[in-house]
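Final report, closing paragraph on structural work. Over the funding period we assembled a curated collection of sequence-structure pairs, and we close with a single example.
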Amino acid sequence: MVTPDQPPRGRRAPRWVTAAALAAAVAAGTALALPPHGTTGGGTVSAVPAALGLPWPWTPRLAAAPLGAAAVIVGGQSLALEDLQDNASVAVVGPDGDHRLLPLGGPGSAGGTVLLAADGHSLAHDDRNGDLAVTAVDTGDSRTFGVPDGYYAALAFAPDSGRLAVARVTGRTELGLLDLGSGAFLRLGDLPGDYAARPGFWAAFSPSGRHVAFQDGGTVVVAGTDGARSGTFTLPAGAVLAGKGAWTPDGTGLVLGAPTAEGWALSIIDAVTGVARSAPVVLRGTPVGDLLGWSGTGTMVVAGYAGAVDVTSIGLASEVDTVRVLRVPADGGPAEDLLRLPDGVTSVDIAADAMNGEGPARPAPIWPVDRRWAFLALLLVWWPAVGALSACVRRAG
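Its predicted structure, as stored:
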């Protein structure tokens, strides 16, 4: 009872108001956790992120929540990137830092069996039936390309992202160009069946997209995209094309990679004659370097692999200890970290437009949450909320 000398106590809100407010807060939090089904982020990539985080099992799949474009893809050994049956996924990172997962249904590696297009709009990878699949990052839809009694293996995207250099494996292994619009295949040459280096070292497009360099055993062949050959020369012992970014930005040179006692050595040769044009640049303490491309300032962008690895094994997550993405001056200046990768990442590929761009380098946080995990979280939150609401109703009654 309140006497005239006592101030009135503040009135409590009705129980139904409290329950409604709780329900609204839970619903709002759940809505924020759910990724949209449509395209998110921008449609272009203009920079390499400064750092990445590892995805989690609740990171949404690309097919469920597409991105506008992808700047980086990574593979590795973590809860989200490899399951107990050794089925791999790659993390697809958009220009705004959103992560998505692309399950492969088997083993695979970013930059090896999974390639990112120059514009960040497509991914080339094996599908679950052994065919070559090209997945649109902005829709999550895939188109497959098959070969009777054989298969295609993606080697490199053209600068216009409309063609792929591929190996067509049947009774023999042919290298050629696959038009992603028409599905037409143009044979450029044969590859030795025992060539063991991972696909990222087999072929490279010139910056103009009019020439392709590929390795045929110990020989490098330069061919036009019309099939006409313009150069053939013998490689030094142990040397390979340095990666999909092997052409120099001016289109006149090719970068070779080779192991040395001190680390992976990169050297430039003339793209027509094969004559050496520079002294080797050695990545000390790095057994293998994969030249992904060039920055807008003319430095090489190299994925440096550490562990018990060589060009035949850097696609095996179990053999790779760490990966660093380095900015390497072609004149031999000191290498610098371009992208910080967390422990557990064992492979990486970067869109050429991101490497060439001059946009701000922002960290890429892990966001948002897969709908299945968000639903589980919803149940865990809503169950006590519904219980509290029921108790309020009973007491009010």
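Residues 38-357+371-377 form a domain with the Neuraminidase fold (CATH 2.120.10.30). DSSP finds three helices and 24 strands in the chain. We thank the funder for supporting this effort.
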